[in-house]
Amino acid sequence: MRIHPLKAVLSVIWASLLTVPAWSQDTIKIGVTEPLTGAFAASGNYVVQGAKIAEDEINANGGVLGKKIQLIIEDNKSNPTEAVNTVEKLIVKDKVPVIMGAWSSTLTLAVMPKMMEYKVPLLVETSSSGKITTSGNPYVFRISPTSAMEAVAFKDLLPKLKIKKADFLNTNNDFGIGSAAEYSKMLKANGVKIGVLETMDPKATDFSAQLTRIKASGGDALFVTTAVEQNTLILKQAKELGLKTRVITTGGSNSPDQLIAQAGAAADGSYHTVFFPPWFPDTVKNPAVAKRYMAEWKKRGYEPGGLTEGFRGYDGIYTIVEAIKKAGKADPAAIKDALWKITVHGVYGDISFKKQGPAGAESGQNTPTVYLVEIKNGKVVNPF
Amino acid sequence: MDQLLQHVVNALIIGGTYALLGIGLTLIFGIMRVVNFTHGELYAFGAYMMYAWVMLLGVNFIAALVIAVALGVALGALIELVLLRRLRGADIDTTMLVMIGAWIAMQNTEQLAWSGVAKSINTPFPADPLVLGPISVSWTRVFVFVVAIILIAATYALIQKTKLGKAMRATFQDREAAALMGIQIDTIHTATFAIGSGLAAAAGTLLGPVFVVYPTIGDSASLKAFAIVILGGLGSIPGATVGGFILAFVEEIGAGYISSGYRDAMGFLLIILILIVKPTGLFAQKERIG
């Protein structure tokens, strides 16, 4: 929702007239900004569904600090300008002491200066661009892995995949460019030849030109970095063009089940990095938590393809609530300090924050596990 | 060389649908002097109707195509009757603002009705592509190209050979004189907007199954359509046809041999160049002013 300037001014005046701080009311508000419409709508909606499951579970167990939590969810429309507006609205009008968001790296990078300006902590549940935790913003706490962490984890799989020459196709934003840079660096260091590096607009739907070039390059692995919508189209169009290369999607927002449903046979033989494998819940660090989340997801009739995305919102809200509990009050500064001291047993694994970025202004970064899965005969399998 | 052939085939196929989009828009501008901002939404409407009839109601693919285009024509006629008829004689800016409003309202209605999550449409064509030596192309795209060419040809025939087409051309040349000759201008306007909208919806029904459908797909379709129309010359049908193919070729070859990151920029760079050399666009027709 775009805030009318007059409305924004009025809401500031109104807010300053209220002498009682909003966080002493009977619920504790948590801001959420996600792309519910636009290019990343599918993923943003899944994250919100996961967050709502966490909200309901926490409230059913008595909430936190004797109060119920309340998520204030705003749609950032997959658009950085709108993302900034949503954060401004959440902080100024709703007076939330902490925010979760904003899904895509570009959206997250856009809202980060606002967190600094208002001194409100931001829990990043999805974005993977390295810049987010290295730019010296001490209000940023990220539970998802960076592209660099992902590339390092991927290194161990190289002998098994036997890649000789890799091509790249990435979305032309912070997420895609960052991931291609980290992966190509890692591959080059390990003796893999790099073919062509192709990019695409985040809104593009036709990749025939790029895929034709990739076909001519003749690599034996194509690393694709974008959201599930473009991944679907790329798999379909690669098949149409008779591209035989193995497609490996990175970034963990690839929803393999959705790819099987929407790309069909074209998804066969493709590999995907994921940060939670719902097909093998016993292999994760906290199987009981993962199964509780999966059972509730199923009970609510949510899309099974969204499980690999929804857990980010689920863990994000649990992490925030744990910090509020540790802080003893729903106050931005106290929550920020408490985030450094907690360990949360989540679907991502045991979530805790290590310092990253320039000294004195470090951001918090969690270290989750990275998994690689393969789609074989319309099913997700463990490739090794 | 193999790569070039594949690029040419890719461009031809995309060019066919670009031309459809451009012709619809240029027809409406040429005859009605309306800058139609709802064009992209008609494209999205066509794609969503295809989703509804094929995926939700299980109707045969070809039948769904016909129904979706017919509904697009009907929606176009409705927009003309409800909004544009009252605005006849209003200046171009007023009409433009109303159409921008209609565009925003339509896009948000789609969002409300279908949610923001992308939908995919199954086709009855084989999943394995058609392979001709070094060239590989999906059957769906072949179908899209054939239908697009048929629709372009049908539009030409309608404009050049039928009485309605003659009346449309007469209205384009001089509205007052046409009215004096007994042509029902109201009917011509409704028919023009309905046909133009139908062409946009047709492009949507054809490309919806090739790509995925979500509420904002109309925006990029609109942008391409405007680019094509400016490239070819406002109001010129041959211009829009050629413009559609030129844009597709420039994007494809530019992305293939220069940089894929600037794929969409290539087309606009070309428009700037053409407008510097020939400010009326490639094929602008002479018109009587006054």
Textual characterization of the structure:
The complex is a heterodimer of chains A (384) and B (290). Chain A is an alpha/beta fold and 384 residues long. Chain A has 2 domains: 5-145 and 288-365, Rossmann fold; 148-274, Rossmann fold, CATH 3.40.50.2300. Chain A is built from 14 helices and 16 strands. Chain A has a 7-stranded mixed beta sheet with strand order 2-1-3-4-5-14-13, with helices on both faces. Chain A has a 7-stranded mixed beta sheet with strand order 7-6-8-9-10-15-16, sandwiched between helices. Chain A has a two-stranded antiparallel ribbon with strand order 11-12. In chain A, strand 8, helix 10 (228-240) and strand 9 (246-250) form a beta-alpha-beta unit. Chain B contains 11 helices and 2 strands; from the N terminus they run ααααββααααααα. Chain B is globular, with a radius of gyration of 19 Å. The N and C termini of chain B lie far apart (53 Å). Chains A and B meet through helix 2, strand 7, helix 9 and helix 10 of A and helix 1 and helix 10 of B.
Q: Report the span from N to C terminus of chain A.
A: 46 Å
| Shape category of chain B | globular
Number of domain modules of chain A: 2
Structure annotation, total helices of chain A:
14
Q: How much is the radius of gyration of chain A in Å?
A: 21 Å
For the largest interface in this structure, which chains are involved and how many residues does each contribute? Answer: A-B, 36 and 37 residues
Brief synopsis:
Chain A is an alpha/beta fold. Chain A is built from 14 helices and 16 strands. Chain A folds into 2 domains: 5-145 and 288-365, Rossmann fold; 148-274, Rossmann fold.
Question: Which secondary structure elements does this structure contain, and how are they paired or packed?
Answer:
The complex is a heterodimer of chains A (384) and B (290).
Chain A: H1 5-17, E1 27-34, H2 41-60, E2 68-75, H3 80-92, E3 99-101, H4 105-118, E4 122-124, H5 131-134, E5 140-142, H6 147-155, H7 158-161, E6 165-171, H8 174-189, E7 193-200, H9 208-217, E8 221-225, H10 228-240, E9 246-250, H11 256-263, E10 271-274, H12 287-299, H13 307-327, H14 332-339, E11 344-346, E12 349-351, E13 354-356, E14 363-365, E15 371-376, E16 379-381
Parallel strand pairs in A: 1-2, 1-3, 3-4, 4-5, 5-14, 6-7, 6-8, 8-9, 9-10
Antiparallel strand pairs in A: 10-15, 11-12, 13-14, 15-16
Chain B: H1 2-32, H2 39-56, H3 61-84, H4 92-114, E1 130-132, E2 135-137, H5 139-161, H6 163-173, H7 175-180, H8 185-207, H9 217-232, H10 237-257, H11 263-277
Antiparallel strand pairs in B: 1-2
Helix pairs in contact in B: 1-5, 1-8, 1-9, 1-10, 2-3, 2-4, 2-8, 2-9, 3-8, 5-6, 5-8, 6-8, 9-10, 10-11
